[in-house]
Amino acid sequence: MNGKDIQSRRTEDHDPDTLGGHALSDPIEWASNFQKRGWAGQRRYQLLVELAKIEPRIWRRVVVADTTPLPLLHRILQVIFDWKDYHLHEFKVGTLSFGVPDDEYPPPHIDEKSVRLYQVAHQPGDRFVYVYDFGDSWEHEMVLEDMSAAENHVAPICLDGERAAPPEDCGGVSGYEQLVEALRDPSHPEHLDLRRWAGNYDPDGLNLDLINRRLARLPRGRDRV
Length: 225
Hints:
There is one protein chain. By secondary structure, this protein is of the alpha+beta class. It contains seven helices and eight strands, in the order H-H-H-E-E-H-E-E-E-E-E-E-H-H-H. It folds into two domains: 135 residues, Roll (Structural Genomics Hypothetical 15.5 Kd Protein In mrcA-pckA Intergenic Region, Chain A); 38 residues, no CATH class. It is globular.
């Protein structure tokens, strides 16, 4: 299965681009939706991305072009959560996986380089998952919150968020929770060792200006990744 196969699986009821029976049954409503949303390939997507199984929440709200290739979306997610891209990743949409083939792991169903964002998220409310680091297994739950027509190039920008992502290689959710507990309690037996290991890491920190400066340095254009 390739990107074209995925695109063909979209249903008329869920896609304002189509001119099927559902759309033509109310042409005024369809025209209004089209004016707001535009054609696939000319849209601004607003995504909410949240790390799963962690409280208090760690999340980001980001705007990207609907034509964003999945390899570039991976790089955007690395920037907004300050990951270092040390490990493998995959996108999961239902039972399908999209990623980069690797000799040490079973191959993904689909090579991500052939797929763009609008082929996996079609309408507000659509959800999918980004998994980073198959050892620590950081699951990022992603939802398409809003989409609108875009006349010009849509540069990625992080609008909002809360709290810093965990440090690399801290042991997954349980290791992260133990780390935060130790960092916040000077009397904890591992406080000094973990503070030295974590450096200046602040669990509550978030620098949107820095994130957006880094996003601005990513490649522009629909096909460059």
